[in-house]
Write a structure and sequence with these properties.
The complex is a heterodimer.
Chain A (H helix, E strand, L loop, with lengths): L12 H6 L7 E7 L23 H13 L4 E6 L8 H9 L4 E6 L6 H8 L4 E6 L5 H8 L3 H14 L6 E6 L7 H10 L3 E6 L6 H8 L3 H14 L33 E2 L4 E3 L10 E4 L5 H8 L1 H6 L14 H4 L4 H6 L15 H8 L58
Parallel strand pairs in A: 1-2, 1-7, 2-3, 3-4, 4-5, 5-6
Antiparallel strand pairs in A: 7-8, 8-9
Helix pairs in contact in A: 4-6
Chain B lengths: L10 E3 L3 E6 L2 E6 L4 E5 L2 H9 L6 H7 L7 H13 L3 E3 L4
Antiparallel strand pairs in B: 1-5, 2-3, 3-4
Helix pairs in contact in B: 1-2
Classes of the chains: A alpha/beta, B alpha+beta.
Chain lengths: 413, 93
């Protein structure tokens, strides 16, 4: 572990965090790449289960380790984590071992019965993903029927008395105009609204150009966030907007590999959930020494805990506020990590993108997307095979003849 | 945020709260409210940890060698922790 410089006076918390902690404050753990949906912006390119995914026993071992390291809560996601048959057992195991859980779901398994059970546990928080305040806006990103599924889950949670569950929205060009509607929806369910930033990660790389906020929309979002203060959660994902002026509530720093990280379904440990790429892979929980060793000894994380260069940004007056923005956003748009964020509020990112070679941008790794395509399915028409000629007194045998003895002739004695 | 805090009352860490010591102080997590707090000095951690064993919060500060001049700052920090249910009152021994 990298030691922070010894100082006699107290160092600001943000400085302490940038040198890393012996254990993450919290982490994201994606339990499976399997998902019933195929959201166009999925940050983990989920769809199909990976045969190498951690077994129940291996997941329990990770939870034991998190308990020893005093990681008090994990953000469980996927894929759709609730489609794992052992999901509810793992939830109980975690909360029984002092590891609180907040899990993200599209709501598919949140039946009235499940909602009752979840409402009974203090240690569990639920986050329903919704990317439009109307079915049209939501389903264009998350797929047909996904709005109804999410709303049904929210109603079930509210009916069960689950107060303060989260409604999590990835901000896009098409839903940023619905901020007040999202807030009203959350208030109506006694839920809390959470807004996060669209990243060019996973399948998000393919739609980022069309879906990411315009400069004017970023300003609109910033003003709205400032007006609503800490009543709206952001996962600290908009710290690049702090360049406008006043900092937004929360830790305005990139915690990747310093205070947060990602464990993916096959046990790979990445610096952050938006950086699934070999360049940000620190190790695997199956390695000797487990997760703790990866967290404490990986070279990659050690490097991230060194003082970072802001490069061209260091001379900018906003650098102290935005810290150069999001590492993953820069990486997957092909910008240098020590330069401006592609959505830099002063327009430096846009200018950098204009001269960058789009083909040079690294592609996200590990695609688990469904293989279905909306394309014609080739079929070959052929004649039916000739059937045996009908015997006297028997109709011709066809595929739908319900008689179990159809076509059976008892052998002659 | 209220800065009103009964320094002479008997306090304790709330039952559902766990503490993780850190170089800068500590991380506090309340499993019931699912809230995280950061204690920004090791001395504050000493105060929090000894609340249950001391007759009052003032006594816990004194036992942790908190100078009188710094007491108002500690009082504010304790008020914040009480407001977020990280610490709670207990019956005096």
């Amino acid at each position: 572990m990298t030691a922070a410089p010894v100082t006699t006076g107290p160092m600001p918390l943000i400085e302490q965090f940038s040198y890393g902690l012996d254990a993450p404050i919290c982490l994201t753990w994606e339990l499976t790449y399997a998902c019933n949906l195929s959201c166009v912006h999925c940050l983990s390119s989920s769809g199909r289960r990976d045969p190498r995914e951690l077994s129940t026993a291996e997941c329990r071992a990770v939870i034991d380790e998190l308990q020893r390291m005093q990681v008090f809560y994990v953000n469980i996601g996927g894929g759709e984590p609730t489609v794992r048959p052992d999901f509810w057992d793992l939830l109980d195991y975690a909360t029984g071992h002092d590891v609180g859980v907040k899990f993200s779901t599209n709501g598919i398994k949140i039946t009235p019965g499940v909602a009752q059970r979840l409402a009974a546990s203090d240690y569990v928080d639920v986050q329903i993903s919704l990317d439009g305040a109307t079915a049209a806006v939501n389903d264009a990103v998350r797929g047909p029927g996904s709005y109804d599924t999410a709303l049904r889950a929210m109603r079930n949670l509210a009916d069960a008395g689950f107060a303060g569950f989260k409604i999590s929205v990835v901000m896009t060009r098409h839903n940023v105009g619905q901020l007040d509607e999202f807030k009203a929806l959350a208030d109506g369910f006694g839920a809390q609204l959470r807004l996060t930033r669209l990243r060019p990660s996973g399948r998000g790389a393919d739609v980022w150009d069309e879906l990411h906020l315009t400069a004017g929309q970023q300003r609109q979002l910033y003003d709205w966030l400032v007006a609503h203060g800490s009543s709206v959660l952001t996962g600290d994902s908009f710290f690049h907007l702090s360049g406008y002026g006043a900092a937004l509530p929360g830790l305005n720093l990139c915690g990747a590999g310093r205070v947060v990280c990602l464990i993916d379904p096959v046990g790979d440990v990445y610096a952050c959930p938006f950086a699934i790429h070999p360049s940000f892979l620190a190790g695997n929980v199956r390695d000797r020494g487990g997760f703790a060793r990866v967290w404490r000894e990986s070279e990659l994380f050690g490097g991230l805990r060194q003082p970072q260069s802001g490069g061209a940004c260091e001379s900018c007056s906003a650098y102290g506020a935005c810290r150069g923005g999001c590492m993953a956003a820069k990486f997957f748009t092909g910008l240098p990590l020590d330069g401006p964020d592609p959505e830099c509020v002063h327009g430096h990112g846009e200018r950098a993108l204009a001269t960058a070679d789009p083909k040079a941008a690294p592609r996200p790794a590990g695609d688990h997307s469904h293989r279905t395509r909306r394309a014609p399915v080739p079929l070959e028409l052929s004649r039916r095979r000739p059937v045996e000629p009908a015997r006297a007194g028997h109709p011709p045998v066809s595929a739908c003849n319900p008689d179990p003895l159809a076509g059976f002739t008892p052998p002659a004695r | 945020m209220s800065t009103d805090f009964d320094l002479d009352g008997a306090w304790r860490l709330a039952p559902q709260v766990q503490v993780r010591p850190e170089r800068f102080g500590a991380l506090l997590y309340h499993f019931g409210t699912r809230q995280l707090s950061f204690l920004k000095s090791p001395a504050l951690l000493t105060v929090i940890s000894s609340l249950a064993a001391q007759p009052s919060a003032r006594a816990a500060c004194r036992a942790a060698d908190v100078p009188d001049a710094e007491l108002p700052g500690y009082r504010r920090a304790l008020a914040t922790l009480a407001a977020s249910q990280m610490i709670c009152r207990r019956e005096p021994a």
